[in-house]
Amino acid sequence: MDTDVEVLIAGAGPTGLLLACELGLAGVRAAVAERLPRRSGQSKALNLQPRTAEVLDCRGWLAPLLDRSLTLLPAGHFAGLPLDYAALDSPFPHQVGIPQARVEEFLEDQLARYDVPVLRGRELTSFRQDAEAVTATLRTRDGTEHTCRARYLVGADGGRSTVRRLLGTPFPGRDGRIGMAVADVELAPAGDGSGGPGETWQLPDLAPDPAGVAFLLPLGDGVHRLTFGGPEQQNADRDSPVTDDEVRGALARCPGPRRELRRVRWASRFTDASRQAERYAEGRVLLAGDAAHIHAPAGGQGLNLGMQDAFNLGWKLAATLRGRAPDGLLATYHAERHPVGARVLANTRAQVVLTLPDPDAMVVRDLLADLLTEPQANRRVAAMIAGTDIRYPMPGAPDHPLLGTRVPGIRLPAGRGALLADAASKAAATAEPWADRVDRPGGAPVADEGEALLVRPDGHVCWAGRDDDSQGLHAALTRWFTGSP
Q1: Model-level pTM greater than 0.70?
Q2: What average pLDDT does this structure show over 380-397?
Q3: Which residue numbers delimit the FAD-binding domain (predicted)?
């Protein structure tokens, strides 16, 4: 069938760009349509969680991103309560401190290598889908319209997604109850000649306080990220400008020496609104990132949740387009990612409650703080925030502890799986006919002696068992990598 592209992605944020990279790496003809004429340079998010680091490392993209990072944080937080990432089962037991703008810049640089265009200044205004494709209308800033026909359309166009609205997908949840603001600011040096607060990255102090919260993080080049919320922000209209006086008032609440504001580079407001699309897919149209879910930015999970949506979706779209997908593969995108999104919405709502200056909430916070001093409890919550405890439902032996979990530390070319087994095992012989789709990486981690693991292109175990279980492995190879070759 003749189409302009195979996949059209609306939105050039981290979710849309990572999805485009996945598709481009797999040789899929994709394009990204972005309403803004150029990158804003603004960085709403500032971190990559350990699971996102694993995802990027899987494709060889992490190392060059680390060169652009600001710091590595060996801890996370739950409502400001510290979480020890050193205990995580991950080769990257830390957060990568990196502004969102740098992540976007890197991913767009990769797209140029894959010949995937980013169509800036092109706003998606309408679309219609039929049994074979989606026809979208894109409008330029001067009002000129043209159409683009694609096999699939992915809405990665943010919390106010045009794609989601046009699709008519219900977006249940609740509106925001707490107002906050964020600003990138240039500050004068502290009066004592030091850099003052925020010159090193520290966990935010989110303890309940009637006066509100305010904390600084350094972004380099004399710029700081100021996040704050107090009584003044609660009554402000969501779209009203953040004033310099608001910023100065928040700076006065930050710990350490008083800092003088020189300039506000940009500022915006946000709330703890929490909503999730009922369906992540409708026909040939799919939703990812903030288009599929919005939540309070508690624990630093938002950018990561969206990028992991893209990683889950990319290889499934590529396999579908290349005729290598078993029936129902694309449907597993919603089945696997919707519960993950729902859990993030739940934990961010809980974190917001724990920062309210309410006596009962403070009692619960104190109780949780005590529980998190226990290593096992701390490790469990840390894995949830880091994204390393995600276990997708998989057909097969449900009692195997590795089935559905991720295997970090292996490199997987786009669209290819891996068999982790001894080279001379029966499992290796069983998988040989799938050699064009399933690699056998040397030196990769394996299960217990005498066992083998089959790993999907996203690094999750889709079969685990004895290496002489040829029948079970053959069924899994057929299920995830299409019928017998």
Answers
A1: yes
A2: 93
A3: 4-347
